[in-house]
Amino acid sequence: NTTKTATFATSHLESGYEFRPIRRQQLSHALSLLNSTYKSDLVVFMGDMNLNGVECADVVDDNNFKDAWLSVSGNTDANGRTFDMKNNAMLASSSPKRKFSCRYDGIFFSSSSSSSSSSSSSSSSSSSSSSSS
After folding, report:
1. Cβ–Cβ contacts within 10 Å for residue 75, how many?
2. Rounded distance, CA 75 to CA 79, Å?
C-alpha cells in the first residue's frame, strides 16, 4: 500500500473588476508557488477567487492545474455559479434591480497521477496546508 500525500491551500483573491490584473497576478503566483514548493500527489487550491467565470483559465492551465467543477462531465461555468442574485433571495434583496450571477468560488487541483478525476483525494493519508493571499 503506497502512501499518498495531499496539499490544500486556500485564498481570497482581490475583488472588483478594476483589480483583474492584480487578481491574475495573485492566482499565477499562488499556483506557481504551490507547484514549486509542494511535491504532493495531489495539490488543491480553493477559495473565493473572485474570478468572473473562466477569467483566468489560461493561468490555471499554464500551471498544470484543472478546474474541479469543469472537470466533471456536464458541468459548465453557467451551471456552477456560486454568486447568483437571481436565485438567492438574500442577495436579491440587497440589490433588487441588479440580477448578476457568477462563479466566484473555485477549486483547482493538480494531480501527479495520470487520472483527471478528483477522486484521488480520498486516498490521501497525509496532508499539509498553506495559505496564500
Report:
1. 13
2. 6
pLDDT digits (tens, 9 = 90+) for 64-115: 999 999 999 999 888 887 777 777 777 777 776 767 677 888 999 999 863 4
Instruction: Express each pLDDT in 101-114 by its tens digit.
Output: 778 889 999 998 63
CA angle, corner 49, sides to 19 and 71, nearest 5?
Answer: 130
Question: pTM of the entire structure?
Answer: 0.75
Give CA–CA dist 66/118, Å, rounded.
10
